[in-house]
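Entry:
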Amino acid sequence: MRVPEAEFTSYYGRPILKGPVWKWDIAAYLFTGGLAAGSSLLAAGGQLTGRPALRRAGRVTALAAVSASAVFLVKDLGRPARFHHMLRVAKPTSPMSMGTWILTAYGPAAGVAAIAEAAGVLPRHGLLGLAGRALPSVGHTAGLLAGGAAPALATYTGVLLADTAVPSWHEAYPELPVIFAGSALASGAGVGLLAAPPAQAGPARRMAVAGAALELYGAHRVETRLGLLSEPYRLGLPGRLLRAGRLLTASGVAGALLGRRSRTVGALSGAALLAASVATRFGIFYGGVASARDPRYTVVPQRERVEARRNIGGTST
């Protein structure tokens, strides 16, 4: 007689994996990093196409967002010196190491680009006048550098989550960077729709469409492709957040396209896209946390992989 299959239980009901110690501030860090990246791309687009309202809004928002992102990161690390210690090495195989260097390259460029927006209020004479004349060209270069680093900033956090042992994050390694890239574009588009008049908001509307397509595609994949590991993204708080994110994204894009002549509709669409980005990032974060707590999400996929290897071995024999 065959011994029955063991139930997936754990010692005294404890999770098999040690769950993430990250709190809500890391979910906020995921959002603000994406917002900074999307805003820098928006600013670069406004800069290259001669749309000053987009450029200004993107640069200022990027600096505010990356500053908030640094605060959330340092809060999680516990001591600011720990961020400095990460700069002692550069390890290409470590998303955390690469993320530290990406932030280090991006932050100063975004800061200089935002400061350059103050050139118009500086006196015309003296040292301040000299600085005011130099700032636009310096800001132009810094804005392009920040825009060039923005895609890496937008996506490395998805790679970082997928590099953990958390089941629903690890298995979603192809989709998380796509979702985070789309979320960054959508949030940057939201800034543009909020801040720019309709005549200058064309690039923001195109960013909204591209970001929504990536975000909705990636979210659909993690909710359907992962088998059992898709369940945490559909149930409970993560499921509600991701469903709200889809609804807000669709509403924001529809408003951006249909209300392109209305400043009010554009602003409401921008707010919807920003709220969608928050909901999506927090939904992905809490979905992974939920998968680490339940032993089913660790044991069942492991058994399925073992069984699949046995079947392959038996077939080849």
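DSSP finds eleven helices and no strands in the chain.
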